[in-house]
Amino acid sequence: MKDERRYPKYPLLGVGALIFEGDRILLTQRGKPPLMGLWSLPGGLVETGENLDAAIRREVREETGLEVRPLGVLEIFERIMRDNSGAAEYHYVLIDYICRVTGGVLCAGDDACEAQWVRRRGLNDLEITEGTLAVIEKGFRNRGKYK
Predict the structure, then answer these.
(1) Alpha carbon of 40 to those of 29, 47, 79, 85, 95: distances in Å?
(2) Domains and CATH numbers, the chain
């Protein structure tokens, strides 16, 4: 099966959720390429015709079983993964939101093979996708600004 995300003509738009509970953040372990097996924020690609608010709610529900309310954008960044020749094999523009849980039951699904609450002090024990740890730390520092 062809991976439609590889060698895109244009960057792909994705969303991610920073969901906090005390000193813990919700992370998912990626069950599919790219970056399979690494820990990341719940999230994924925005579908054509879908607004960002709906996309973050859908992705969190699909990957974690939880319902959330997006409180605001924390970070926008690019992730470009190049092949051995230097060509952009994957290119994403990612919008990360601070979110609050409003319902549901935690259960990994869709692209996530695991979903769990991780204590801040335990983050360095996990293999986390590049750039994500800095976003998480920024989220811990700034989450009080989002209501």
Answers:
(1) 6, 20, 13, 27, 13
(2) 12-142 (3.90.79.10)
